Each structure stands twice: as structure tokens, then as C-alpha cells.
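Re: your question from the hallway

Yes, I did run it. Sequences:
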Amino acid sequence: MIWQILGTICYIILAPILGGLLQGIDRKLTARLQGRQGPPLLQPFYDLYKLFSKEVVVVNDVQNFLVGGFLLFVVFSGALFFFGGDLLLVFFSLTLAGIFFTMSSCSANSPYSSMGAQRELMQMMAYEPMVLLVAIGFYVATGTFNVKEIVLHNGMPAIVYLPGIFIGFLYILTIKFRKSPFDLSTSHHAHQEMVQGLTTELSGSVLGLVELSHWYENIFLLGVVGLFLYKASWWSAIAAIVVCAISYFLEIIIDNVFPRVKWQSMLKSAWMVTLVAGVVNLMIIAVI
Amino acid sequence: MTLEMVIFLICFPFLAALLLFFMRKSGPVRKYTLFGLCAIIVAAVICYAVTELVSGETHSYFVHTELVDKLMLAGEWLLMGLIFYFAFRHRKYYVALLSVAQTGLMTWLELTGRTELGGFHVASDKLTIIMCLIIGIVGCLICVYAMGYMKDYHSHHTEFKKRRSYFFALLFVFLGAMFGLVFSSNLVWLYFFWEITSVCSFLLIGYNQTEEAIRNSFRALWMNLLGGLGFAAAIAYCAIRLETLELQTVIQLGTMVPVAIIPITLLAFAGLTKSAQMPFSSWLLGAMVAPTPTSALLHSATMVKAGVYLLLRLAPALCANLAGTMVTTIGGFTFFMTSMLAIAQSDAKKVLAYSTISNLGLITACAGIGMHEAVWAGILLMIFHAVSKSLMFLSVGAVENVTGSRNIEDMHGLIVKLPRLAFVMIVGIAGMFLAPFGMLISKWAALKAFVDSNSILLVVFLIFGSATTLFYWTKWLGSLVAVHHNSERLEDITKGSEWLSLICQAVLMCLLCLTFPVVSSYLIEPFLGDMFHQTLPAIISSGNIHIMALMLCAIVILPVAMRLLTIHRKNKIVTSYMGGANTGDDRTFMDSYGKTKPMYLANWYLEDWFGEKKLLKPSLILSTAGLIVLMILAIGGAV
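Structure:
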């Protein structure tokens, strides 16, 4: 129990720091891949600091509340995950967070953020089946939805049973990280046809909250990647961290290599990958 | 004591209907009579539930009932006469044919004495209590709402003939039939009430007497009569071969004797038609031509619930056999396909109709799995669905009465125009699919049950169906919360009685979310214990319940916290960004000719991908083929 609470506290305190650093590394690497010098490693923190010191310019007050809901439930899902709670509940709470975020941009009643909201919904529809399948995969492999029991379960790391589901999860991770080719609803780069999509109408500290939520979310998602390997031993912890690092590096490469696609291709390919990699994997382990 | 209450619950609504039918004059007398009758039914239902819970036993009554049986036979002939009258008047002879076939079969069985097999005719257990509470409370709230609604309805639609007393009477007949249906434990009795609900829904759907209404009402009738025919065939088989007509005995035989699968399959088929599963989904979609209270009643408290009720009862006999496979496959397929079809709809009532069919599909799939955790999920889904769907229909009806439109696009910015109704609607939508609220708990359990029973196909249907469900509900939510600048608040003409009904249901919804562990441990778990003849492990751990309670608290605290955080900070409010082409507010923009153009933000409906034109026909063909093949396999495998 004490370890579980410690995990939760560590997540709440350390996730923004790690998330910010991760983004710093991301921006540095991306710049190098493009032959630029890139900003300093701590740039995301400077940005966030500046955002919080600015005046809030919004379209209406409802937005603040909904963005608050987004941050709250992202942190809640992450905290529940690192506490060792029920994986399905964790994902349901993450979905709730996403709905709050989408509603905030709908409430702005602005052409760009509305378009972003519809695209965000499309993204959610594309990745949701795979996310649920991850939870189911863990359940079939270890007999429990409980993160703590998954970690303590005797046997090989889950990735041995779930290679297909792991690949499928990596695929939709590109959507969740808002990386090209699937950064349809908003991204860190300005897009000419949709400005900043979802976040167009947000500024100042409210935008800062969104940024913070993304850091929390990214660390939590990498935690799920780590769960495929982590088995409560030091070597598996190292393996988990290495795999997380490789996955994130892969996402950066993909981000830089592939151009953005239409939503049709995203939906089709994400569902195809879910069916082919995820469901086939599930069928095989369910039979064995 | 209980027996008297059961008789009262079945008979009183019929008497109430008779009274209301003869109160032709509208006015406060009729209004308060109706409210009084509803109050009596609600009080009786609660009284019955409490006494049953306190005594905590399962009761069975009536062994010898020749007189009542004869009366029921006469009733069946009356129904057939009614169907004949309408069939010949509108030249739909096939309906008469279907009716003759089943009534003839039943008459033959009864007159030759084949149905006199003894056994109990009335039973009451925990599932009956749950159903009674749903029918009594939700059904009566809908009747209360109908009083105010129908007045506005007729002032909006002057072209329809006013037949309000007939309408109210039918609502009560429906409630009475539903009570009878859930109390009957004899198949012949069950069949009688089953037929009343079919005919009643036919009359209610055809209320407007427009060409479309008549066409749709006949579609509902023939589909439900087809189910009734299956029911009658099941009765004939049970009476002649199994020599029992008691539902519980038939189910018990179904788990032991292979031939008993035949009547089980036929009964399940009847359940599928009544709960509007594909390929019979079109009757429920057509039902939306009727006034809103009819839709609310058909979708939430009655009719379709009769179908899933029967399927849930049959659950133990559906476990791990071909009949079960038929039910789960059709249910899962319906869940997935109709949730996709709902994406392309912009008519709020149609979205609700598709979502009903979709949710019923999930309940059906749960029943077909036949394991205790699946049945648990199914019952919980049924409860939550009844309340939230009725709430949704009634709030859509109220919005339609004010704005004259039930298109979701026209609900854009409702939070400013009609804040109270929008809020009620948000509660309803949240209840339908959002995280700590009801449906999701059941979905969680359903998913677990599907995985445990190793049905990969169902898992696939469920995960993809959940994703599409998320899409169409969130789209709607987004429309509601859009804050449109310079919107006027509309005058809310929703009547007091309508508000009473809406608020009661919204409160009920929230209460259910908070107290579902209590409902589960006092009603559902004891029922499952009886059903599966063993004590069962807890389905949802207390840790998870605490976490869900925590989430619920977080949602409640969130607005307060955000208000406190931003109390000292003044936000600068600007108009939304339009690339510099704003013309003062977020309603218009400057086009490239320098002229002002109104801006219109639409949701995505993706007709080319999820439209009825693309998906409906293939899914109907697939499900029909699937149903026929699986039924033949299930029956053929048992012979």
C-alpha cells in the first residue's frame, strides 16, 4: 500500500518535470533532424512560465472550467495507473478527460476550434478500440485488470504474450502524442488550414494548463508502454525505460518523416491495425 | 398481502385507462385525475417493492385458474378482432393472417385442454421488483409529462385529430400489460400480456393517422406479431412435448435437456423482435413518428424492456449453447452497427432511437452469454438505460416544443438559449455513456464477461461499438455547450408538470449513479443467486466502487474549484478568431467580396461512411441471414 501511494505522489510531482524534459529533448532532436540548432533543453519550462504570467484572453468562461476538467482527469488517470488501480477504469477516465477537452473547444464556437474538435473526436474514435484492447490483452495474459497484480503476476513480461497488441498500441500512440502523420486536431506546429485547431481560442494560463495536461498524459502513456515489460525487478525496470525511450524516439522519427494524412486514412489504418495486430493477437492468446 | 398487491398492480392501470378513456373533456379535472392515478401507481409499486424486500422471499401463486384462462382466451380473440378491423380497413391482410395463425394455435391448445398443466401462474422475485420499479416510476413520470406535452403538441400540430383521452388510456393499458407481463410465470399468461403490448404499441404509433404513421405502425405490428407467432409455437411445443408451461421449469429444462432448447430458441426469437434487434430494428425507428411520450414509453419503461426482460430471464438456458450464440451474435452485431448508423443522424429522436437499439443489443448480448456477471451487467444496463433514455426523450420533446425543431444542429448553443433544459439533457447524455456514470460500470462488467466467456467476436463488437458511441454522444454534447455570442434566452414554455417529470428523472439518474452498489447488493445479486442456485462472488470490487465515487465527487467539486481559482482573475473576453475577418461577433464574417456572411458551424455526420444508404441494407441482409442460419442450427441441433 505504501508503495502504491508513493507511486501516485511521485507521478503527480515528477510527471510534469519529466514531461517537460521529454518535450525539450523532443524539440532538440526534431531540430537536429531538420538541421537546426533547436531551443535549449529547458525551453518548455520557460514557455510554460511565460504562459502562466500572461493575461488570460478567452472567448468565454465555460472554457476554463472544461479545461480544468481535462487536467483533473488526466492527472486522475495517471495517478490511478501508478497507484496500481484498474486498467479499464484508468482508460475510461482518460476518455472522460478527452471529452472535457473536446467540449472546451466546442464551447468556443469558433470555426477553427470547432473543426479541431470534430477532428479530435475522429481521433478518439480511431484510437479508442485499440486502447480498450490493450486492457483486455493484459486481462487475458495475466487474469486481472489490476495494474498492481499485472506487475506482480508470475511469468514472462506481458510483451511476450502481447506483441501484436504492443505494436497496435505504438501505432495509436502517434495519435495520442499528437504527432504527424496523425496530428489532425492540433499540434505543436502551426497548420495553415486550421491554425491551432483545438487550442486556437485558448491563451495564457488556460493554455498553460493544457500544456501541463499533455505532459502528464505523455508520461502516463509511456507508463502503459512500460507496463508491457515491467515485472517488479530492477532489470525489467531498466528494460521498460529503454523500451519507452526507444518508442518515444521512434515517434519523433515518424513525426519528422511522414506528412499529415487525411482523417479517412487515419481511421481506416488505425482500425485495420487494431483488427490485424490486436485482435489476431487476442485470438491467439485466448486459444492457448 | 403480496398477492393482493400484485392483483392491484395488474388491474388498477386497466381500470385507470377505462376511467381516462371516458373523460373526454380536457381541463383541470382530467389533469388532476391523471396525476392522482399516477401517484397511486407509484405509491403501490414502492409499497410492493418494500414489502417484498423486507420479506425477502420469492413468491408463487395461483395453481388453478380456469376462469381467468377463459377470460384471457376471450381477450386474445378481442385483440384478434381489433387487428382484423385495422387490417381490413387499411388493406394490410398479411397482418390478419399472422394474427389468425397464432390466435388459432392458442385457441386450439386451450380448448383441447392441453394448457391445463398446473403449476404457478404468478411469481414475484427480485427481477420482478426491479421491473416493477422501472415500469411504475419511469412509466408514470412519462404519463405525467404527457399531460402537459400533448396540449402543446396539438396546438403545434393542428392538422391531427385530437384524441387525447384515447392516448392517455392507451398509456395506462400499456403500463397494466407490462405489470402483467413481469408477474406472469405461466407462458400462456405471459403471451397474453405480450400480445397486448404489441397491439398497444401499434395503436400508439398510429396515433397521428398520417400515412407515414399508419405505415410505420403496421410495420411494428407485423414484426411483433411474427415474434408472437414464435412465442405461440414455443408454447405449443412446451405444452405437447415438455408438458409444462411454467417459465422457470422450461428454463431449468433448457439447461438440462437438449430438446428444451427448441422452445428456448423460439422464445429468444420473440424477445429479439420485441427488443428491436436487427433485422427487426426498423419498427422502433419508425415509432418516432408518434408524439414524444409514446417514444419515451416504448424506448424506456415498456415494450422493448419486455423483450430484454424475457431474454434476461432465459439467460441460464442460453449459456454456452447454440441458442445463446444466436442471441449474442445478433445482439453484439446490432450494438456495433446501430452505433455506427447513429453517427450519420442529425435528427435527435433518430439518434436516440439508434442508441436505444444499440444499448438493447448490448443487453441482449449479455443475456445470451448467460454467465452471472454478464446477466448482472445486463440488468444494470437495463435500469440505467430506462431512466436516462426516458430523460433524453422527454427533454428533446420539451426543446422541440420551444424551438420547433428536434435537429441536433438547431440545439447548437442551447446552454445559452435554454440553460435549464440543456443542463437536464447533459445529465441524460452523461448517464448514457460517461465514465463514472451508470452505463459505463455495466459496460465494464460486460467487457469482463465477454472476455471470460472467450467470445472474441463480441469483444470486437464491443470495443468498436464503444468508440462509435463515444463519437455521436460527444458530438451532441459539444453542440449543447457551444456558447454563441449575442444569443437571446428563449422563453421556456415547458409546463410545470413536464418539469416535475424531468427533474424527478434527472434526480433519479444521479441517485442511481450514487447508489448502484446498494441496488446491486440488495436486488441484483440475490436475484442472480436464486437464478444460478449458488452464492456468487462480488462482481465489482469495493476498491473500484470507491474510485468511481471519487470520480463522481471530482466532477461535482470541479465547477466550485474552478470558480474559486479564477475568482480574483478577470479574464479578457474576446470574439473568436476568424483570420481577421470578424465583423463584430462570432455570428458573421467578411467574405472575399467584402460582404458580411453568416457563419454556420456544423457537426460531422459522415454520410458517405456511416449513412443509412451505405450501412443499413448490408447490415439488415447480414443479420437476417445470420438469424435464420443460427436459428436453424439451434433448433436442428436440438432435435
